[in-house]
């Protein structure tokens, strides 16, 4: 009977679908498990607080970790104000004019440009044309440009979610456009904006390729003190250790990955937490 | 341009277009000070569009275009010399759905003052109390001024929105179907409020509800398909309309 | 007051304009450096040579040797990501119980949050040794392992975009199908998937674009040996890996070697630019369909 056959197909697909989904989960578990097993024993205070070294057992991630912090802070400093500014402009001001339309297409194109191309941009502009050299500032500016489209898109979503009635109410009381934005729209969308920021910065923290191209170093035997210092970051350090044949360095790499993942997951978790909290709080 | 002495709003040959659509046709009206004027008519007749001309809330609609003059305080309000923010302080508006800001009750009322740079605590407190009293809400919220405005009932929210409008000290208050989202009890509270407020303000109210127009307004204008068919003393319009269209509408033959 | 408002608007506008400057910057840098490169190496040789050896004494500049590596790893990734992505999308959208969905979906999303360097490590240290059990002749660096892992990484991209597309299909269509006694499978694949096809195609194109531009997984696990081959078991080199390889070494600014990475970069850029624009085009038509 066709009917019976259809039902059997239906059931088979239900199982296939479940298996496919579980396959993704399964890979995730294997990935996390294998890294934990390989690296967790290497995680100790010495590892976190030591500079890199030719000897795996003496090496640590202090300079890479501090480089990551520098990059995180400076990237946020550049990308957040510019990202919010651009999003506010596109959503509240320039929405309908031609320039706005062009910028919009441009942003979705930028979001699809591979990260390594941003590295070439940073190398050409910040490192060579502006003569910064391969320093923290050049890396942070490069990553800021990289995450700018992500921030703009998520900020615009958050701005869009602010109901029109709130804007009308404020305009009706004689507020200027900027007053409406500053006193109503931005506060009402702050949660959504912040969530997007954090996700974008989490992405920046994990980026390797553009920083390699910009010239981040694999071996940095000092803790960077200014934006004009040379630097390494955690993913660079991991890449460097993975590329070495000795097994001890692989263990170091796994341990550094655990640190990187912890940071990434904390940021992502915080973003999800914020999003949920915000969605619950705001009922229009 | 000048208004006559007792006129708050005067429209002369006003035409409004959305793109090529002609939504208001050659409207002439003079609204007296300290009176309540109701705009009635079926959906899409242009009454909301018209009321939104008085504080230029239509500015946000890209395809909006107006001809003719609207004169408030001796000035054509679409004139280049007019600062639209100042106009909106003079001509307050209460919207169809209560739209309190997601802030405390207190902050809602004093918002208009804050954006004008008023941060004196005493002034803000006094204004808040006065406006909440005037909006007949004070007794219900005086102990909860720091509670979120979103926790109030719909009727309370709407009165809060009225209080918020009063705080800016307008001379004219526009109400765009202010009770359409409310239950009958809240509606009657708003209506009572309107009759009290008229002592100090000129009020223009758009309403779907003919009984409401009859209850609260001194004069009523009937709109149909972009024309202002008739503008008369409310009592006259409802008991002895001059036009057949008006007659048909108020007797419920269409709409 | 008016002036302040204008200044603010201009400042905000400038922020938005930075994105345009970024695009100009990318295009300018890629074109100007590539232009100098192509003054020394003819474009014909660039496209037709079969070997890529700019770092050796006998220099050859055949981009095909790199491009084939990129296409091979991307193709392997797509074999994993496209079918699994769409199956998962249909399953989560139409079959999965709400609680199952609420647990599985966020877990899948974690896959998208993991830095690519971590996937590279995973491909090299876990997947390749495992593949060695199946194919004893496999090299330590190979396209297969990198491609497979890349595919898993891209699954959430395909599944979440496809799921959005399926979700956007008007409810009435779904109800019409169920109303005539169709099973979930029939409804999904005969009504929903065709109706959402443009959105699903967009997700596929973006997935390809993502794979083509992916760097760290292939740089770590696929090798650094440019060669024109379809054999997934031997080391290869992708365009992105080559850029990383040159950047990690000491290449003099202004030398031909330095410029090769921009020539490689522009090839990559053109590929992803075309793919992204095809996806815009498809998306635009998709919008019209429902309006």
Describe the structure in your own words.
The complex is a heterotrimer of chains A (284), B (255) and C (291). Chain A is mostly helical and 284 residues long. Chain A has two domains: 41 residues; 236 residues, MetI-like fold. Helices cover 77% and strands 0% of the residues of chain A. Chain A is built from eleven helices and no strands. The model of chain A has no long low-confidence stretch (mean pLDDT 90). In chain B, the strands form two sheets. Chain B has a six-stranded mixed β-sheet, with helices on both faces. Chain B has a four-stranded antiparallel β-sheet with strand order 2-1-4-5, covered by helices on one side. In chain B, helix 4 packs across helix 6. The model of chain B has no long low-confidence stretch (mean pLDDT 91). In chain C, helix 3 crosses helix 6, helix 3 runs antiparallel to helix 9 and helix 11 packs antiparallel against helix 12. Chain C starts with a helix and ends with a helix. At the A-C interface, helix 1, helix 3, helix 4, helix 5 and helix 6 of A face helix 1, helix 3, helix 4, helix 5 and helix 6 of C.
**What structural class do you assign from the helix and strand content of chain A?**
mainly alpha
- The residue ranges of chain B in which pLDDT falls below 50 over 5 or more consecutive positions are none
The poorly predicted ranges of chain A are none
Number of helical regions of chain A: 11
Q: What is the CA-CA span between the terminal residues of chain B?
A: 37 Å
Q: List SSEs of chain B in N-to-C order.
A: EEEHEEHEHHHHEHEHEEHH
Distance between the termini of chain A: 53 Å
């Amino acid at each position: 009977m066709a009917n019976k056959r259809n039902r059997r197909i239906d059931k088979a697909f239900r199982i296939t679908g479940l298996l496919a989904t579980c396959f993704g989960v399964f890979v995730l578990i294997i990935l996390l498990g294998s890294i934990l097993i390989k690296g967790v024993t290497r995680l100790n205070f010495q590892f976190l607080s030591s500079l890199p070294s030719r000897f795996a057992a003496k090496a640590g991630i202090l300079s890479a970790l501090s480089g990551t912090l520098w990059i995180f802070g400076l990237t946020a400093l550049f990308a957040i104000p510019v990202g919010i500014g651009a999003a506010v402009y596109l959503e509240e001001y320039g929405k309908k004019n031609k320039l706005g339309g062009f910028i919009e297409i441009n942003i979705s194109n930028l979001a699809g440009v591979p990260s390594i191309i941003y590295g070439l941009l940073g190398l050409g502009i910040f490192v060579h044309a502006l003569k910064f050299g391969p320093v923290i500032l050049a890396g942070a500016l490069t990553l800021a440009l990289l995450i700018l489209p992500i921030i703009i898109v998520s900020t615009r979503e958050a701005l869009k979610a602010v109901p029109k009635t709130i804007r009308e109410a404020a305009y009706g009381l004689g507020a200027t456009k900027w007053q409406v934005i500053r006193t109503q729209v931005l506060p009402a969308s702050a949660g959504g904006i912040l969530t997007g920021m954090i996700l974008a910065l989490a992405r920046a923290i994990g980026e390797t390729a553009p920083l390699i191209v910009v010239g981040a170093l694999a071996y940095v035997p000092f803790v960077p003190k200014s934006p004009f210092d040379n630097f390494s970051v955690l993913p660079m350090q991991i890449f460097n250790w993975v590329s070495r044949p000795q097994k001890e360095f692989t263990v170091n790499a796994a341990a550094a990955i655990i640190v990187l993942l912890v940071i990434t997951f904390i940021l992502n978790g915080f973003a999800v937490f914020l999003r949920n909290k915000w969605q619950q709080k705001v009922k229009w | 341009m000048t208004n006559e002495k007792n006129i708050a709003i005067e429209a002369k040959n006003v035409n409004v277009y959305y793109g090529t659509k002609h939504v208001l046709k050659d409207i002439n009206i003079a609204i007296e000070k300290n009176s309540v004027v109701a705009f009635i008519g079926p959906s899409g007749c242009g009454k909301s569009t018209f009321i939104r001309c008085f504080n230029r809330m239509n500015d946000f609609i890209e395809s909006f275009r107006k001809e003719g003059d609207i004169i408030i305080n001796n000035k054509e309000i679409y004139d280049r010399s007019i600062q639209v923010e100042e106009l909106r302080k003079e001509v307050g508006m209460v919207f169809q759905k209560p739209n309190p800001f997601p802030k405390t009750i207190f902050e809602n009322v004093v918002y208009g003052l804050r954006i004008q740079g008023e941060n004196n605590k005493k002034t803000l407190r006094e204004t808040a109390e006065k406006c909440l009293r005037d909006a007949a809400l004070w007794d219900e919220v005086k102990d909860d001024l720091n509670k979120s405005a979103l926790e109030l009932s719909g009727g309370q929210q709407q009165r809060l929105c009225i209080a918020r409008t009063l705080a800016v000290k307008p001379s004219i208050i526009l109400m765009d179907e202010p009770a359409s989202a409310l239950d009958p009890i809240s509606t009657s509270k708003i209506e009572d409020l309107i009759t009290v407020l008229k002592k100090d303000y000129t009020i223009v109210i758009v309403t779907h509800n003919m009984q409401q127009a009859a209850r609260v307004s001194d004069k009523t204008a009937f709109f149909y398909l972009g024309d202002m068919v008739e503008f008369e003393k409310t009592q006259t319009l409802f008991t002895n309309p001059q036009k057949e269209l008006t007659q048909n509408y108020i007797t419920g033959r269409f709409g | 007051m008016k002036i302040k408002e204008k200044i603010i608007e201009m400042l905000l506008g400038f922020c938005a304009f930075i994105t345009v400057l970024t695009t100009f910057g990318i295009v300018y840098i890629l074109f100007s450096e590539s232009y100098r490169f192509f003054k020394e190496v003819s474009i014909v040789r660039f496209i037709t040579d079969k070997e890529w050896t700019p770092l050796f004494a006998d220099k050859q500049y055949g981009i095909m040797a790199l491009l084939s590596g990129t296409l091979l790893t991307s193709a392997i990734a797509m074999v994993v990501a496209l079918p699994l992505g769409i199956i998962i999308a249909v399953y989560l959208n139409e079959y999965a119980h709400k609680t199952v969905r609420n647990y599985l979906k966020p877990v899948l999303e974690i896959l998208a949050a993991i830095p690519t360097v971590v996937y590279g490590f995973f491909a090299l240290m876990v997947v390749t040794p495992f593949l060695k059990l199946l194919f004893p002749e496999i090299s330590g660096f190979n396209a297969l392992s990198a491609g497979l892992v890349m595919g898993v990484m891209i699954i959430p991209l395909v599944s979440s975009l496809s799921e959005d597309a399926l979700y956007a299909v008007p409810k009435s269509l779904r109800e019409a199908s169920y109303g005539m006694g169709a099973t979930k499978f029939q409804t999904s694949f005969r009504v929903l998937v065709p109706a959402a096809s443009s959105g699903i195609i967009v997700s596929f194109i973006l997935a390809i674009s993502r794979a083509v531009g992916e760097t760290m997984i292939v740089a770590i696990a696929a090798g650094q040996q440019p060669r024109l081959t379809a054999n997934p078991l031997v080391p290869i080199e992708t365009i992105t890996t080559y850029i990383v390889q040159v950047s990690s070494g000491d290449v003099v600014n202004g030398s031909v070697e330095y410029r090769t990475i921009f020539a490689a970069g522009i090839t990559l850029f053109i590929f992803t630019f075309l793919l992204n624009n095809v996806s815009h085009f498809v998306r635009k038509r998709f919008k019209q369909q429902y309006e």
